[in-house]
Amino acid sequence: MTTRSAGRFLILLLFVPFLSVASTHSSAAFAIDMTDSWAGYACVILFVLAYITVTFEETIKLKKSKPVLLAAGIIWAIIGFSYQQIDQIEVAKAAFEKNLQEYAELLLFLLVAMTYINAMEERRLFDTLRSWMVSKGFSYAALFWLTGLLAFFISPVADNLTTALLMCAVVMKVSENNPSFVNLCCINIVIAANAGGAFSPFGDITTLMVWQAGMAGFLQFFDLFVPSVVNYMVPALVMSCFLPKGCPDLVQEHIAPKRGAKRIVALFLLTIVTAVSFHALFEFPPVVGMMMGLAYLQFFGYYLQKSLPRFLAQQKALAQANHDETTLKRLGSIVPFDVFKRISHAEWDTLLFFYGIVMSVGGLSLLGYLSLISGTIYPHWGAQWANIFMGALSAIIDNIPIMYAVLTMDPVMSTGNWLLITLTAGVGGSMLSIGSAAGVALMGASHGQYTFLSHLRWTPVIVLGYAASIATHLWLNHAQF
């Protein structure tokens, strides 16, 4: 390797996690190596600058989707110009369309999932759970374990961001005047939410990508359940030794779920079954079943709207008969359920950020950067150490491009190793507060009681859990390697 090539390789090694899944599959046989051209260097610099801007989102108050959307557009403009000069524009066009198709499938899948979560939130299901917890008078230790365990078991269905914010709201409600307890609980919640999402195809975007790529079957993800439990329990047990004694002041709060809340949960579970069935029976993308599940919610929303006048009349008559002024006042504030309003409340900044990442790194892959390094990391380091390294990087860099990098490299790996990268990319972000959306969100929601430095003090213990979960997976699932 020449000095120039070696320098270029070292630079690219820093950017391994950003390289994408789609374009290599679509045009690997026709892509032209532009890694040593002005176009290649310009695109890498653009993307790195955009990603650096993303990392300062909280400081400069700029939505993370904006810089990557701009970078994606400029990168593909440079690619279009470069490929046009060599009369290969059709290759670039095919690569772009393939990237767009991959993104569209994931976008629609996530949009349906987010719509259901927002519908449950609008029906006050999460508020009801929170009010039950804060009014029970749990001790500090009980709250620590309850919020952690609920975060672990809710995040495989709901996203880890929503789960973490819900549990943080409980902690802040009952013990806002105890910063040390809030800090320990927030760290515990972040670890639990990330670990819980690692063993479910629906728990995280990265697990969803691995499932849709066909690298592991739906039920095979649950082989990661015990390693995920270990990843959560090791640091949780250590932190529990430093909890304050006694109980926080009792907070009386009662919130009832709105009409249809439980049925929406049932419809969401039916939607998951439908998505899995389409994939298992017909080998269709799971998004087909998810979009069908959106129809379930739309029809149920239609029923709620049409039956609302009759429901209100019955409840009003009952409240008047019982002289229940509180119920009468509440009935006057009920508004019809609107599915499309729930869709509008989806995390559009996250979805657009995802587009910018996919299209930007897809462009970098087409330019040839992935082929420059794909034959080095996995063959020389071995699949297990490479997967462990990639997972550790997710503490600094978003795990979505990391998983895209691995899927794009498409190394020859056993099912056990594909599950290993799923585990490490899912839980590696817990090592730093900035390593996951849950950690970043809780730094804001805790009003300064949970910070980057306070999380960093517990990083050695979290790393111990990371190592223990990997060892558990290698031991329990050794037959899959």
TrEMBL record:
> Main localisation, per the record?
membrane
- Segments spanning the bilayer are 38-56, 68-83, 103-119, 140-158, 224-243, 264-281, 287-304, 351-373, 385-407, 419-445, 457-476
**The name this protein goes by in its record:** Sodium:proton antiporter NhaD
| Secretion signal, residue range per the UniProt entry | 1-28
Name the source organism.
Vibrio rhizosphaerae
Where found, per UniProt?
Membrane
Keywords for this protein:
Antiport, Ion transport, Membrane, Signal, Sodium, Sodium transport, Transmembrane, Transmembrane helix, Transport
PANTHER family tied to this protein: SODIUM/PROTON ANTIPORTER 1-RELATED (PTHR43269), SODIUM_PROTON ANTIPORTER 1-RELATED (PTHR43269:SF2)
Q: Which residues form the Citrate transporter-like domain?
A: 46-426
